[in-house]
Amino acid sequence: MELFSAQFRQIREYLLQDRAMGLVEIPAPSNLEWPAGLGRNLILSQDTAVELGNPREGSASFLMWTEQAQEVRDGRIRLMGPDLPESRGRSLPFGKVVMIRVRGFTPDNTYPRYREMEALRYELDLKGYMLRAVSQYQREWSRVSREALDQGFSFAVLGRAVINGFHGLEYVIGVEVLFVTQAREQVATLAAIGDQAGRIIAAMNKMSVEISFDCTACEYNDVCGDVADLRSMRKTMQTAVGV
């Protein structure tokens, strides 16, 4: 099931065009760990060292998956822009893309597996890191505490936690993470790609909860027309309900 072929291509083009913006690969060993917050991750404004993705600055956060080995290099964390230790006292635009290599996705299991992966995106429990708000519009707003920054919290820590979390799913083969903090314009470009991925997800959501399969009246008709595997899912769902 290849739902995001166009978006993977767009990410490759995005990174090629913006190498001059300081794209780097961050080393993060697989055993890199950070203490859990144990559910006590409230960070007040006076305790905040860095804010990421405030709506005033811009935000983009989404995941996409593929079964193509060449699209995902497992364990790779890339950053375009300043890291957290050098951003103390700042509110940064924030982009985060989680790219996952999976196996065994079919028209029957893709939607429940997506729901499982989507829920996992927001289960990070890292001491000194707070997800302040997330949105169905592919946006994410978070804070890092002063104490966490003093103790070495960075995108290497955050990226490794994301990667390790998804590796707990039996159908996940590889995980790669991209962070962008460079400029509002770069995050806005990333958000446009995320919005397209979001429409694919929204079309899949609609197919899963609605019995009607009247494509002429659906606002996602164009998406299904462009993504062949969405049409396969639709046919499977039609068969299941006897349409």
Describe the structure.
The protein has helices spanning 5-17, 110-120, 146-150, 155-166, 184-209, 221-226, 228-241, and strands at residues 23-25, 48-52, 59-66, 77-80, 90-92, 94-102, 129-135, 139-145, 172-180. Helix 1 packs antiparallel against helix 5. The model has no long low-confidence stretch (mean pLDDT 88). It is globular. By secondary structure, the chain is of the alpha/beta class.
State the gist of this model.
By secondary structure, the chain is an alpha/beta fold.
Secondary-structure map:
Layout: H1 5-17, E1 23-25, E2 48-52, E3 59-66, E4 77-80, E5 90-92, E6 94-102, H2 110-120, E7 129-135, E8 139-145, H3 146-150, H4 155-166, E9 172-180, H5 184-209, H6 221-226, H7 228-241
Parallel strand pairs: 2-5, 3-6, 4-9
Antiparallel strand pairs: 1-4, 2-8, 6-9, 7-8
Helix pairs in contact: 1-5, 5-7
Order of helices and strands: HEEEEEEHEEHHEHHH
Count of structural domains: 1
User: Order of strands across the biggest sheet?
Assistant: 1-4-9-6-3
Uncertain ranges = none
Taking all Cα atoms into account, the compactness measure Rg is: 19 Å
CATH homology group = Bifunctional carbon monoxide dehydrogenase/acetyl-coa synthase(codh/acs), Chain M, domain 3
Q: Count the DSSP helices.
A: 7
CATH class: Alpha Beta
Mean pLDDT across residues: 88
The CATH topology name reads Bifunctional carbon monoxide dehydrogenase/acetyl-coa synthase(codh/acs), Chain M, domain 3
The rounded distance between the terminal residues' Cα atoms is 22 Å
Helix/strand/pairing class, anyone? alpha/beta
